[in-house]
Design brief:
The structure holds two protein chains of two kinds.
Chain A (H helix, E strand, L loop, with lengths): L2 H12 L5 H22 L1 H37 L1 H30 L10 E7 L11 E2 H10 L3 E14 L6 E8 L3 H5 L5 E2 L14 E5 H8 L9 E4 L2 E9 L19 E4 L11 E9 L5 H18 L1 H4 L3 E5 L1 H4 L3 H35 L1 H9 L4 H37 L14 H27 L3 H5 L9 H36 L10 E7 L8 H16 L4 E7 L10 E6 L11 E9 L3 H5 L3 E4 L13 E5 H8 L8 E4 L2 E9 L21 E5 L7 E8 L7 H11 L9 E2 H8 L1 H35 L1 H9 L4 H29 L1 H5 L10 H27 L3 H6 L2
Parallel strand pairs in A: 4-9, 6-8, 15-20, 17-19
Antiparallel strand pairs in A: 1-10, 1-11, 2-10, 3-4, 3-10, 5-8, 6-9, 7-8, 12-21, 12-22, 13-21, 14-15, 14-18, 16-19, 17-20, 18-19
Chain B lengths: L14 H11 L3 E2 H11 L8 H14 L2 E3 L15 E4 L1 H23 L8
Helix pairs in contact in B: 1-2, 1-4
The chains are: A alpha+beta, B mainly alpha.
Amino acid sequence: MSKSRIGERVYRRLLRLYPRDFSDDYADEMTRLYRDRVRGEGVASVWLALVVDLVSTAPREQCSTLVQDVRHAGRTWRRTPVLAVAAILTLALGVGANTAVFSVVHGVLLRPLPYPDANRLVEVFEDNSRAGGGPFFRVSLLNYLSWVERAQSFEALAAFNGRDFTLTEHGDPERVLGSAVTASLFKVLGVAPIVGRPLTDDDEKLGAAPVALLAESLWARAFGGDPAIVGRTITLNGVRHQVIGIVPTGFREIGRTQIGAAGAGQIFVPMTMDTAQNRGNHTLRVVGRLRHQVSLDQARDDMRRLATSMEDEFPATNRNWSVWIERPQYSMFDPRVRTSLLVLLGAVGGVLLIACANVANLVLARATGRQRELALRAALGARPARLARQLLTENISLAVISGACGLTVAGLSMEALRTLIPATIPRVDEIRLDGTVLFFGLFITTACGVFFGMVPALRGARANLLPGLTPNGKGAIGPSHQRWRHGLVVAQTGLATMLVVVAALLLQSLVRLQQVPLGFEPGGVLTARVSTPQARYPNGPAMLEFQRRLLGSIETLPSVQGVGFMTSAPFAPGVRRTATVEDRAMAGRSLEARTSALEQVVSPGLFRALGVPLLAGRVFGAQDRAGSPLVAIVSESLARRLWTNADGVGRVLEFDGRSHEIVGVVGDTRGSDGTARGGSLDRGPQPVLYISSAQFPQGTVSLVIRTDATGHAILPAIRAAVREIEPTLPIPDLRPLGDWIAESAAAPRLTTTLAGAFAGAALFLTVVGIYGVMSYAVSQRTQEIGVRVALGARRISVIRLVLRSGMTWASGGIVLGLIGAWSISRVVSSLLFDVSATDPVTFALTALALTVVAVLACTMPALRATRIDPVIALRAD
Amino acid sequence: MVSPPNPDDLLPLPVATFHILVAVADQDRHGYAIMQDVATRTNGVLKLSPGTLYGSIRRMLDEGLIAELSDRQRPDEDDERRRYYRITPFGRSVAQAEAARLATLLRQAKAVGLAPGRA
């Protein structure tokens, strides 16, 4: 082959860069032109010019074809405005809801934490799984210090725990959340103060001058962002602290639990290392930065080995304790939050698919109506590929408009969404419409356009010419279109069935959750956090005197029936300390002679105020004073664990190195499951060891007040009573205990509400879909039905005919949906409380409900079929 | 019915479009001939590339400025079965309108001394 022939062939290939119809039209001409020019000008100069030409004009021609197609699409959609609006609204809602839910998933779960090299950050827990306590326990100070010394996998480890601070700087005392942190936290997070200096190891030493760092937000709010605050002193809990620096918003405690609802700490003080304490006190949260090249699994192995050697070294406190490491993105939630978000994302995706199926139906029906137009254009020389491209452009432009509307909806609902999400879910403030979320929205929009545009485009392009041009123009789209429509009905019904099953299961679970026995009487109970001002009441006796006066002043209020306090009220945020208790007398005789229990310091009146029943023995009384023999009360489950029956009165428990005589057994309570955030309804009661506040005075406690006053009427009186004792004492979180309980169920309630809403939407769209397909089928079979009626078919048999064809497909979908729901039961079951994810009653009722709905959707077209006039039907041909 | 198109709606014409109209104004030509004619008249300054040429021709056909000749109308001497283009009456009036627009422009430029000659 000569050189010029090769050049010609290459050029012909390159001409495919132009739109198909352009190259079809002009490739011959342009090749001839190429030949002419090569003859006149020579190969090299012609090719140089041609490359420039291709690069500049091919995209231009592509664009111009696209613009033409889009214009044409606009014109054709304007001819069927109702259909266009219906399709756009359906899709816009689908895309909007999906984008919104994705923005939550992205903001809460997927977006990396805002720290340098965030993938090396981990949270470290003590793992009590072997003793049935779960892998997410806080860390004891002594174990932490041993890890710092011996662990190989970490560049740095840091510990912190939450603190309440009373800031008395200007006017009213203010309660601010904060943390005591180790100096290494700055190194672990990789964040430096924006003003001033970070903490140093010297700040951690006992007896070091008190210093504090302020969060940027507190600095701006309380001190006007004045850099001169650094170096000055402020009063925290009655003690002067020197402000040494301001930390950016990104500096916050990460990890599983947070003191206060969603509150990131605002004040950070150095954690002083008081090593004179028990290795079994699990009070700290620990985060670490993995060394380069160390994987999560390697770190887990390393720490497990370390834990095993420490079990041998400290058997009294460390037996059955291992270590668990988790990425903070995962450890900062209850794993069920993750599951429920993913289930919701799946549910809303299902709604979008159903919406797409409906729009595909609309578009198919419309394509049928346009057979004549398409056949005419094909007859006039439009190539199939050109027609397919045109049809696809029509549908994608529809999708793009819907997507734009959907994203607008999502953007506008962002604020509402953030307020809707329970504050117990971390990182809610990071939910926004950013690039990734927009990309996701655009992606699903395009995917929708291609999904519902492809089928009609392919079918339209293959349209048979002749029948399309016959007068009634129905022949072109035949059984294959019908197949697609039936497939869509099956898919829709299946997805809707799955969604309804999941929503119904979640609803039952929520109902059972709210009926679960709590072990106390929350009605009429108010709680509040109270911190005894250290500066004014520096020692135990002074603190007790303050608390006695406080309780006395509240008790005398009318309508107050009982008052007491405890370390942390159930379901409310607070400090929860787990400790190891042991009955030495049982050693060797019982597997569980030593176990861990939640420690609660309580005042004598607490059990009556909270409504916890006394099962055996007595509650604390005036005889349990400082100096008198140490006493304790155990909860029923702790008694059962240690002594197999509920009676432990008279036995002696070792705890924190001291012996306590058990004087009573009280009922179990829910809502104290070892997390600082507050308990959750679905977790069973924890074993609790109650000790007397008179013997172990505690500064910060939860007040528990039982009243018969309704609503919030009594709150001012309580505030006044407290102020009478201590005018500058803030009383944060003074609210009904019932509010905390409701809040603890906020996440499942939201999941259930949204899943219910999505299931409702799915059901509605499916009804519309089935109705549309059956109406269309009836209109296609007008003649056949006309003939049947003319031949004497009765109304009922016509109805049966239509119902049978509709229900065949719908019931197929229902069966597939039930199978689908069964196959995801493992995922769903983690969200369920007291309900089986394969509950046969739920499955059966859902199938029944879907069947009824599908029958209803088929009924109208069926009734219409009975009204077909055989004369008109037969004349139509 | 659609109202007859107004020549002024298409003004100003793209440079390539105007040159192609001028090339086919006096005789029917095929693509390569149009290219050569434009190059000759502009002393080689304007060389239409194939993409520009056929892109313009396609749009001009759509707009009704030119028409493609049927096989019968083709000049007999052409043995390569090239495609020939002829100006339509509408194309002619559009070209005239564009020429008039350019003439007015030239007159105005002369009046302020931007072009040689007198207004």
